[in-house]
Amino acid sequence: MNLPTSAEILRVYIGESDKSGGKPLYQAIVEEARKRGMAGATVLRGTLGFGVNSRLHSAKVLRLSEDLPMVVEIVDKPERIEVFLPWLDTAVKEGLITIETVRVIAYRSGDKK
Question: For residue range 37-93, what is the model confidence (pLDDT) as tens digits?
């Protein structure tokens, strides 16, 4: 898939322990994006953060069980992001969702060299 030079980045800020259908929510989001043929998704695991309740989540060595911050990023055409939002609205019970316009510099999937 070729992206236009102007696209959107959708970011979903959630917790590592958040679930959807018995699986990690970040995994469910990526699987749904893939199923819909979106351009791509990346999951980032934070080492420190806090959300609306101001409770710190940290990856300190002495803590074995954590609910670390997770960010799912998806870059695609604005209309494809827009169609994905209703699904996200039902899946994300607590979290922050942002959308920004971005300029795509390179996307080489399928290029012949």
Answer: 999 999 999 887 777 666 665 655 555 456 789 999 999 999 999 999 999 999 999
Torsion of CA 81, 9, 72, 54, to 10 degrees: -110
| Residue 109: per-residue pLDDT | 61
Query: Which domain CATH number covers 34?
Result: 3.30.70.120
Other beta carbons within 10 Å of 62: 5
Residue 98 lies in a domain: yes
How many Å apart are CA 107 and CA 69, to the nearest integer? 27
pTM of the entire structure?
0.83
- Which residues have CB under 8 Å from 95's CB, separation 6+? 12, 13, 14, 15, 18, 51
Distance CA 8, CA 15 (A): 23
Structural domain of 28: 18-103
Joined together, the tokens standing for residue 109 give: 């999937």
